[in-house]
């Protein structure tokens, strides 16, 4: 079975990480430079299940969607949060909500083979047991980020086959950021593979909240 994982940028003209898995083998992993290229990639694999780290349906002008509220009930005690998701906030970053545009361009998939996923929750539940702090924040320098990305890379190598390894110590600037996006997209695709492999369970029993529903 084919799985596509997308670490979707919040602007239609920024880079997104994208991965194609065949079962748990990486067929392709890289970055693409626009939403149009993400859509083109997905359309090449009409039988793939697609997992996107981005909001796909945003009806509320302010506040949070129900899914974020449900998520925080289970994960705030574990110090894993989510950004607020509403139209007012997301349209500050772009003229469109990119997840919605992706959904519109492959509408037959929505709710069937197109899902929202959250890499941090997968990493916590499947690998690390707590928040893996590999994202850039105040107080985290580049060397610290490299250490965390090596931990993530090692986790992924234990469950996914294929050629995606890079020497993180050699990556600088945008190349390091792009590799982070690639690893996120692999986790997105792996989330779908994991859920399919454990389909005798519900998504809720695996991740404690309905992460793969809008």
Description:
With 214 residues, this protein is α/β, with parallel strands linked by helices. It has one domain (2-207): Nucleotidyltransferase, domain 5. The chain contains 8 helices and 5 strands. It has helices at 35-43, 66-75, 87-90, 98-105, 119-128, 142-159, 173-197, 203-207, and strands spanning 2-7, 16-22, 25-32, 49-52, 114-116. It has a 5-stranded mixed sheet. Helix 6 runs parallel beside helix 7. The longest helix is centred in the C-terminal third of the chain and has 25 residues, at 173-197. It is globular.
Summarize the structure.
The protein is α/β, with parallel strands linked by helices and 214 residues long. It has helices at residues 35-43, 66-75, 87-90, 98-105, 119-128, 142-159, 173-197, 203-207, and strands at 2-7, 16-22, 25-32, 49-52, 114-116. The protein has a single domain (2-207), classed as Nucleotidyltransferase, domain 5, CATH 3.30.420.
What would you call the structural class? alpha/beta
Number of domains: 1
- Estimated share of beta-strand residues: 5-15%
Instruction: Tell the overall outline.
Output: globular
Q: Which sheet architecture does the biggest sheet show?
A: 5 strands, mixed
How many H/I helices? 8
Query: Mean of residue pLDDT?
Result: 90
Rg from alpha-carbon coordinates: 16 Å
The main sheet orders its strands as 3-2-1-4-5
Please mark out the parts with pLDDT under 50 across 5 or more consecutive residues, or reply none: 203-214
- Helices and strands, in order, run as EEEHEHHHEHHHH
């Amino acid at each position: 079975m084919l799985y596509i994982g997308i670490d979707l940028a919040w602007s239609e003209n920024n880079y997104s990480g994208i991965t194609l898995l065949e079962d748990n083998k990486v067929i392709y992993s890289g970055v693409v430079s626009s939403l149009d290229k993400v859509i083109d990639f997905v359309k090449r694999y009409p039988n793939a299940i697609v997992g996107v780290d981005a909001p796909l349906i945003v009806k509320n002008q302010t506040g949070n969607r129900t899914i974020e509220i449900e998520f925080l009930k289970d994960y705030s005690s574990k110090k894993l949060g989510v950004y607020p998701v509403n139209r007012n906030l997301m349209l500050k970053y772009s003229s469109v909500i990119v997840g919605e545009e992706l959904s519109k361009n492959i509408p037959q998939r929505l709710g069937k083979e197109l899902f929202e996923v959250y890499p941090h929750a997968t990493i916590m539940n499947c690998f690390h047991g707590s928040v893996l702090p590999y994202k850039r924040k105040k107080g985290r320098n580049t060397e610290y980020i490299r250490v965390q990305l090596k931990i993530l890379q090692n986790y992924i190598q234990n469950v996914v086959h294929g050629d995606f390894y890079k020497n993180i110590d050699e990556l600088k600037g945008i190349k390091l950021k792009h590799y982070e996006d690639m690893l996120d997209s692999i986790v997105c695709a792996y989330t779908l593979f994991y859920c399919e492999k454990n389909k005798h369970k519900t998504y809720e029993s695996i991740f404690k909240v309905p992460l793969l529903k809008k």
